[in-house]
């Protein structure tokens, strides 16, 4: 509707899913301003786009600019990129939680964050435990419309090479067809599907806070 365009913030726009999300939002007629916060430039030039460069581990420094109708958090690292567990936690837990806190402080009522299938604050697996603790801390902020997406292994073309992940993706192509019924949630999912589902959630009401992989895939095809 004319005169009621929306604004959005993306954290992680230089990553696989965040980059695809950025492209989708820039082309979406419902939005007139897209802000991205990152350490390095996205190299994207667009009249809707505003970039804010800095250290996301000190996200509170951006508070005065961290204002929009909705926030998309696509932050995440890997063990190979971040072997130090404390730094890993500061990224995968610290940044999303700080973003949720800023949403609360700045009266942003829509917050979407990518977690992972298997996230569990009580898990003995470090990765799953951190994601689960992050989810609990985000939900504790009480943001009116909080959506946590829990994808299985994410497919798509990354700039960096991850051998183990590449092999897993090839195997999942074969296994996906075999994963039926309750096992469908373990199917690999394309990053673009996650991006499209996030935008749908931001623009429609949904009864659940947590959305698992097969639900994300279905949602990506909603009108």
How are the elements arranged and paired?
Elements: E1 6-11, H1 16-26, E2 31-38, E3 49-53, E4 70-73, H2 85-105, E5 110-114, H3 126-140, E6 145-150, E7 154-155, H4 163-176, E8 189-190, H5 191-202, E9 210-212, H6 213-219
Parallel strand pairs: 1-2, 1-4, 2-3, 4-5, 5-6, 6-9, 7-8
Mean pLDDT score? 90
Oligomeric state, counting identical vs distinct chains: single chain
What's the total count of β strands?
A: 9
In the CATH scheme, what's the topology name?
Rossmann fold
Shape: globular
Name of the CATH class: Alpha Beta
CATH H level: which superfamily? NAD(P)-binding Rossmann-like Domain
In short:
With 223 residues, the chain is an alpha/beta fold. It has a single domain, classed as Rossmann fold.
Would you mind describing this structure in some detail?
By secondary structure, the protein is α/β, with parallel strands linked by helices. It has a single domain (6-219), classed as Rossmann fold (3-Layer(aba) Sandwich), CATH 3.40.50. 36% of the residues lie in helices and 18% in strands. The chain is built from 6 helices and 9 strands; from the N terminus they run βαβββαβαββαβαβα. It has helices at 16-26, 85-105, 126-140, 163-176, 191-202, 213-219; strands at residues 6-11, 31-38, 49-53, 70-73, 110-114, 145-150, 154-155, 189-190, 210-212. The strands form 2 sheets. The chain has a 7-stranded parallel sheet, with helices on both faces. A two-stranded parallel ribbon has the order 7-8. Strand 4, helix 2 (85-105) and strand 5 (110-114) form a beta-alpha-beta unit. Helix 1 (16-26) crosses helix 5 (191-202). The protein is globular. The two termini are 17 Å apart.
């Amino acid at each position: 509707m004319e005169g009621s365009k929306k604004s959005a913030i993306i954290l992680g726009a230089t990553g696989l899913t965040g980059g695809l999300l950025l492209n989708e939002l820039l082309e979406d007629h419902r939005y007139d301003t897209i802000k991205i916060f990152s350490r390095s430039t996205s190299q994207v030039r667009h009249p809707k786009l505003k970039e804010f460069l800095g250290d996301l581990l000190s996200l509170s420094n951006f508070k005065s600019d961290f204002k929009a109708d909705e926030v998309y958090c696509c932050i995440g690292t890997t063990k190979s990129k971040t072997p130090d567990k404390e730094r890993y936690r500061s990224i995968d837990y610290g940044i999303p939680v700080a973003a949720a806190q800023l949403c609360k402080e700045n009266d942003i009522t829509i917050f979407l964050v990518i977690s992972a299938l298997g996230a569990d604050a009580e898990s003995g697996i470090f990765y799953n435990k951190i994601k689960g603790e992050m989810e609990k801390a985000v939900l504790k902020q009480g943001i009116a419309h909080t959506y946590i997406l829990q994808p299985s292994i994410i497919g798509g073309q990354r700039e960096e090479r991850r051998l183990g992940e590449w092999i897993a993706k090839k195997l999942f192509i074969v296994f996906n067809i075999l994963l039926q019924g309750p096992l469908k949630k373990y199917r690999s999912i394309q990053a673009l599907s996650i991006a499209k589902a996030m935008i749908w959630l931001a623009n429609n009401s949904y009864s659940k806070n947590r959305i698992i992989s097969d639900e994300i895939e279905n949602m990506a095809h909603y009108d």
